[in-house]
Each structure stands twice: as structure tokens, then as C-alpha cells.
């Protein structure tokens, strides 16, 4: 039965495995299936850039050049229905310490008071766990080498 499950999952060489190897491979596949189910609970998954460029999932509203400040709010491509959400997004970048516990610890770490609540929510919602390690990495100044300064960045706003 385990071997048939492996064959159904297109596991290479499933027909040639010894019985103990079948059990090990089945455990691994079962773990992967369970993890993929757990991944579905992530609120803010990260998408590959080529997937974000796909016109089938997200419609591009406008491009925002941060050098121009808030001028993008006057763009005709940004409909009136989107403006309150955009303003709330930018306001959340300066909102700190929302009420409520962030962890199951007796006392939440001070890192949760050190970043705007939007980043805390994103870190929490983009991971299967609490996102604590991501928050501490941000505070430690760890960043990808390809990260550009915000004032030199052009981003696309997309409608979900």
C-alpha cells in the first residue's frame, strides 16, 4: 500500500525499493504532504517574482516610484476604492505596539515593541511559526544583498 502511494506521487524508483526503504520514503512523503497542508495556513505567502508578473492572478493597478512621494495617489489607474486601503497601508508603517499578546510566552519579547506593527503582522503571517526569528533578523540588520533602498525603488501595486 505504501509503495502504491509512492508510485501515485511519482516517486522515482518506488518499484525498486526494499521494504525498509519504502517505509522511509513513505514517511518522508507523508511529512511533505502534512507540511504542504500546514503551508496553506500562511496568510502572507511569498511569491516568486515571475509568478507575481503573471497577469492571470493579479491585475497591475499602477507603478509607484517612491522618489515621487505620494504623487501616485493622483494616478488615474488607482481607483477611489483602493485609496483608503493604500492610505491605511502607509499609516501602518508608523503604527507601533498594537494591543494583545504576540506569543504564548509569559512575557512577549521587547522586539515586538521595536518595529511597526505591520512588520510584526507580516512576519507572523508569512511563516508557519510565529515569525519571531524573522523579526529578530530584521532588528539585527540582516538583509538580502539584493535589497535596494526604498527611496530608489519602483514597485507595482496589484489588485488581488
Defining key terms:
160 residues, mainly alpha, two-stranded antiparallel sheet, 6 helices, 37% helix
Verbal overview:
This protein is mostly helical and 160 residues long. The protein contains six helices and two strands, in the order H-H-H-E-H-H-H-E. It has helices at residues 2-8, 19-39, 49-52, 83-92, 117-125, 132-139; strands at 59-65, 154-159. The chain has a two-stranded antiparallel sheet with strand order 1-2. Helix 1 (2-8) packs across helix 2. The longest helix is centred in the N-terminal third of the chain and has 21 residues, at 19-39. The radius of gyration is 22 Å and the shape is extended. The model has no long low-confidence stretch (mean pLDDT 76).
The succession of helices and strands, N to C, reads: HHHEHHHE
Rounded to the nearest angstrom, the radius of gyration is: 22 Å
Taken from the alpha-carbon principal axes, the silhouette is extended
Q: How much strand content do the residues show?
A: 5-15%
How far is it from the N-terminal to the C-terminal residue, by CA? 42 Å
Count of runs of 4 or more consecutive helical residues: 6
Strands ordered across the widest β-sheet = 1-2
Helix proportion: 25-40%
Average pLDDT confidence is: 76
Please provide the count of β strands: 2
Amino acid at each position: 500500500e505504501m509503495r502504491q502511494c509512492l508510485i501515485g506521487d511519482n516517486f522515482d524508483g518506488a518499484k525498486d525499493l526494499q521494504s525498509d526503504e519504502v517505509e522511509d520514503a513513505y514517511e518522508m512523503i507523508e511529512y511533505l504532504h502534512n507540511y504542504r497542508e500546514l503551508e496553506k495556513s500562511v496568510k502572507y505567502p511569498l511569491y516568486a517574482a515571475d509568478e507575481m508578473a503573471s497577469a492571470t492572478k493579479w491585475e497591475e493597478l499602477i507603478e509607484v516610484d517612491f522618489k515621487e512621494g505620494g504623487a501616485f495617489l493622483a494616478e488615474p489607474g488607482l481607483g477611489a476604492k483602493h485609496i483608503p486601503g493604500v492610505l491605511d497601508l502607509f499609516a501602518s508603517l508608523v503604527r507601533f505596539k498594537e494591543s494583545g499578546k504576540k506569543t504564548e510566552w509569559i512575557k512577549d519579547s521587547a522586539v515586538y515593541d521595536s518595529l511597526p506593527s505591520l512588520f510584526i503582522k507580516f512576519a507572523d503571517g508569512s511563516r508557519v511559526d510565529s515569525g519571531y526569528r524573522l523579526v529578530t533578523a530584521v532588528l539585527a540588520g540582516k538583509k538580502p544583498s539584493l535589497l535596494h533602498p526604498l527611496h530608489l525603488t519602483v514597485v507595482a501595486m496589484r489588485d488581488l
